[in-house]
Structures are given as C-alpha cells and as structure tokens.
Amino acid sequence: MSILVIADHDNKVLKPATLNVVAAAQKIGGDVHVLVAGADCGAVAEAASKVAGVAKVLHADNAAYGHFLAENLGLLVAEMGKGYSHVLTSAGTTGKDFMPRVAALLDVAQISDIIRVDSADTFVRPIYAGNAIATVQSSDAIKVITVRPTGFDPVAAEGGSAAVESVGAAHDAGISSFVKEELAKSDRPELTSANIVVSGGRGMQNGDNFEMLYKVADKLGAAVGASRAAVDAGFVPNDMQVGQTGKIVAPQLYIAVGISGAIQHLAGMSDSKVIVAINKDEEAPIFQVADYGLVADLFEAVPQLEAELDKVL
Amino acid sequence: MKVLVAVKRVIDYNVKVRVKPDNTGVDLTNVKMAMNPFCEIAVEEAVRLKEKGVATEVVVVSIGPKAAQEQIRTALALGADRGIHVETDEEIQSLAAAKLLKAVVEKEQPKLVILGKQSIDTDNNQTGQMLAALCGYAQGTFASEVVVEGDKVNVTREIDGGLLTVALNLPAIVTTDLRLNEPRYASLPNIMKAKKKPLDTVTPADLGAEIAPRLTTLKVEAPAQRQAGIKVGSVAELVDKLKNEAKVI
C-alpha cells in the first residue's frame, strides 16, 4: 500500500501544511510519495525530498501546472493516483479546488477535511460547522482525502533523503487560463500556521483601528485574523477571515477582540489551545469558550495590552 | 444563454444542531430548514446575469425529498424562471449529486452552471468541482466576481493568499463564495407569482445516474465541549495569566 501526497506550494517554497499531510499519511501507514507539480518548482521538490518519512518525490514540472489550475492538475493527479491506495492533500483553497475533480475522474468519493485517521478506510471529520464530528468509512478502492492541517502534528521538515523522480506527463486541458493574482502582502506569519493569532471583529469599527491589533500582533509574533463581519464591512481583506467559510486555525493562543463568537466563527478557531476574549458585552457567546475573558472596551484594553506586553516580553 | 443553478435544502444556519443520543446523526425533526446560504448567492448571481441581459433563462434544480420543492419555489420567487426537482429520499452524497446534475446538464445544455461552494451541513465543498470534472468543463470555484465576456467567463476566486482571476471557456461551472453578492429578499407578489412558475419532477432513475453511497457514516458525535474559563479584572491580570499560568507568551 502506498500513499500519494500532493504538495502544497507556490513554486518557490513548500508550504508547512504539507508536513501535516505527510503526518496524516503516516497514520494510515505505507510508503509515502510526494508529488510536487508546478512550474520551475525544483526547489520545492528538493525541499520535499528532505521531509522526514517521505520515500519518494515525484516532480512534475510544466507550465500547465504553474498556476495550479484544477483542470490541468486534476488530470495529472487522477492519472498518477491510479497506482495508489490513498491520495491526500491539504484542505487549503488549492486542494479543495482540484481534489474533488480528481475524485470524480477516478469515480470515487472524496473525504473532505479529515482531522483524524482511525484506520486505512475510516476517517473522522467535522460537519455542521464543527458542531458534530462524523466517523466515515470508505468502500472505494482509492481513498481521495483532503486533510485539515491543524488536525495533525507536522513531521520534521529535515532528516529525510528521498529520491526525486521526474514526471514527464503534461496535461493541459486547454479550457482555462490564468489572468491575474492579487496577493495580500504581510510580514507576519501565515494565519493557518501561526502560534498566536490576534483577531478583530465588528467591534473594531473600521479598518484603521486594526492598526492597534497589528501592533499587538507584532509584539507577539502573531498573525492577524478577522471575523466575517469585519471582512464584510471592508475593514480587512477576505483572506484574513477565520471561520467555517474562511480559514481554520488552531494556534497556541487565540485572542478574539470585539468578536461576538457566532457558530460560524467558532468553527474556525475553537480548537485553539488557549482562547482569550476581549469584549464589552459580557453576554457575548465568545465568553462561553474563552479560557480568559476580559469584559472591557477594546479601545482601552488593546493599547493597555500593548503596553503590558512591553513590560513582560 | 441559459444558466442552471443548483440549490440545496439544509438546516437553517442559525440553528444550533443537536447530535442524536444514539450517535446516528444530527436531529433534524422539527428543525427549521432553509436554502443553503451559498446557494442563495448562486441564485442571486444568476438572476443578476439575467437582469444584465447576459442570461436569457435561469433554471433551478434541487435534489432531495419532496420538501426540497420549498427551496425551488424560493429560488423561483427570487427570479429563476423554472424549476427541476430530482425527487429522492435516499442519501445523496457529493459524487451522486454531481452525476445527477450532469444528467440535467446534458438535457438542459446550460452555458453556465452556478452552485454554492459548500453546503453548511456536510461541509464537503465537492459537488461543483465533481460536476465540472464529469462534464469536462472548466471550473471557477470560490468566486467573488463573475464576468461573462463572449465565449469566456472571467472568475475572480478567493484563495488562501488573496484573489486569483481565471478565464474559463464556456460552458463552465462556477461555485460561489460569500462575497460574490448580497442576496435579495423575495417580495410577496413574487412569492405568489412563483407558485405559477413551472416545476418539473424527475427521479434519479429517469436520469439514469448511479447514486449508491460510497461512504458509510459509522457514527456522529458531539465535539468535545470547551469549558468557559475565568473572567479577569484587568489587562495586567490577563497578561500575567497568559505568561505565568497558561505559559503561552
């Protein structure tokens, strides 16, 4: 039995989520092969070959895969996946985009966003915005799976010495093309892999006030997130949204500022180790999950927090 | 051009779900049901395309029990022209839904199919992509902007790092993200008019699709409950607790 993991990367660096997916693959058991598909992504294949526990790296380098278009990537992964018992990738927006296409081409079900492996055919995943946890068993010959990275501790990025094998297959469906990309620029850690996340909600009142959170975040080396209310109100870009429809995070410390704690937001952060809530409404649902709650006006509390951090850090 | 929209009947998003004591699933008896929020956005986008003169007809399809006709009527009240109900009481998983929708696509020949990016019950986020694969069409998932230009559609997608725009050959599949639009409310006159709009009922057998489930749900459990912690009196106390008690900073 061998398992194919599709690496998550940007043609330059291997994204850390891949290490969590390899960990999930190891829980299933069997040889783990990693497919690095992209354009001019040799450095990524090299990085993948060093990941602990990886037996082989397959490197498919072709302009057709450069922007990870699902139409092209789907054909490649479906062709390669035929030789494996399991095909896994991380449940980021890229994996969510191409993986169901792979499953349909292989005529198998997909198991989305797993948080636990019970056995080679049985997996655990959240449903209803994390308000229920389902254990599902697959009867398909090939298990196509997306993995929630926060559900698995990552394997070491160094220590492996897998052989890199070049894959010649060039699949270009010719029905879609890349037009442009607008990436949010930030020096802060990536939201989904940050140890500390500071998030703001509607209570922040406007985008300029997020500056207060950025200051606190920079002191803590934290990423900054947001609730859907803050995104919809235009305070911050959508890629900062934490929740059922945004990103799922599980940091060591999650500080929710001016966030009421709707079901959809809790779905994205309730697995955090320690949750802090700062809210002036003491009835806010966020206090029901917060380890430490402070009932206070955030416009007073956040600058104080910044000052207090200066004293202890 | 003709636009096909798929809608799903799900538990209302405001309802706090309860897991059944026997762990077979979530209790849906006497629970408020509604159209999946992402599907509402799909209907709204199709209706806007019609108002712009891009779409000529908006057909809405739903797969599910008899009661799913309520959601089709809602879509008709929002501006869709006619409905197709694929009636079944069986559990329809994403792959089966995609196969049924493919049969509808073959019959209706829409230029654009719009679905929600995920349903808020199963949270699978699969059906649109699977339908695109089965039809051999391009896909624009997690769309926050859809612009039809000639025989192509430009879709701006919400991705992890920001936004990405792709150009897709028509016919194509689009799945909606929350920020694509703000769905309208159905007015009472439109709700009355919707009752007279055509709604065809077909069965999975009529469509000739294989719908047997591939996944078996062994059990459904409530998640581990987080306990409410303590309230602190000041920022200084909070920082002290984080440093010395929780040791996370």
UniProtKB/TrEMBL annotation, chain A:
Keywords: Electron transport, FAD, Flavoprotein, Transport
Ranges of residues in domain Electron transfer flavoprotein alpha/beta-subunit N-terminal: 3-182
GO molecular function terms attached to this record: electron transfer activity; flavin adenine dinucleotide binding
Cited Pfam families: ETF (PF01012), ETF_alpha (PF00766)
Domain of life: Bacteria
Co-factor requirement: FAD
Record has Electron transport as a keyword: yes
Binding site residues for FAD: 202, 227-228, 241-245, 258-265, 279
InterPro entries per the UniProt record, alphabetical: DHS-like_NAD/FAD-binding_dom, ETF_a/b_N, ETF_a/FixB, ETF_alpha_N, ETF_asu_C, ETF_asu_C_CS, Rossmann-like_a/b/a_fold
GO biological process: fatty acid beta-oxidation using acyl-CoA dehydrogenase
Free-text comment on the cofactor: Binds 1 FAD per dimer.
Assembly: Heterodimer of an alpha and a beta subunit.
PANTHER family listed in its UniProt record: ELECTRON TRANSFER FLAVOPROTEIN ALPHA, ELECTRON TRANSFER FLAVOPROTEIN SUBUNIT ALPHA, MITOCHONDRIAL
Function: The electron transfer flavoprotein serves as a specific electron acceptor for other dehydrogenases. It transfers the electrons to the main respiratory chain via ETF-ubiquinone oxidoreductase (ETF dehydrogenase).
Family: Belongs to the ETF alpha-subunit/FixB family.
Protein name: Electron transfer flavoprotein subunit alpha
Organism: Hahella chejuensis (strain KCTC 2396)
TrEMBL record, chain B:
A GO term, aspect molecular function: electron transfer activity
PANTHER family: ELECTRON TRANSFER FLAVOPROTEIN BETA-SUBUNIT (PTHR21294), ELECTRON TRANSFER FLAVOPROTEIN SUBUNIT BETA (PTHR21294:SF8)
Function description: The electron transfer flavoprotein serves as a specific electron acceptor for other dehydrogenases. It transfers the electrons to the main respiratory chain via ETF-ubiquinone oxidoreductase (ETF dehydrogenase).
Protein name per Swiss-Prot or TrEMBL: Electron transfer flavoprotein subunit beta
Originating species: Hahella chejuensis (strain KCTC 2396)
Alphabetical list of Pfam families matching this protein: ETF (PF01012)
Gene3D superfamilies referenced in this protein's UniProt entry, alphabetically: HUPs
Record has Transport as a keyword: yes
Subunit-level organization: Heterodimer of an alpha and a beta subunit.
UniProtKB keywords: Electron transport, Transport
Residue ranges occupied by any Electron transfer flavoprotein alpha/beta-subunit N-terminal domain in the UniProt entry: 23-211
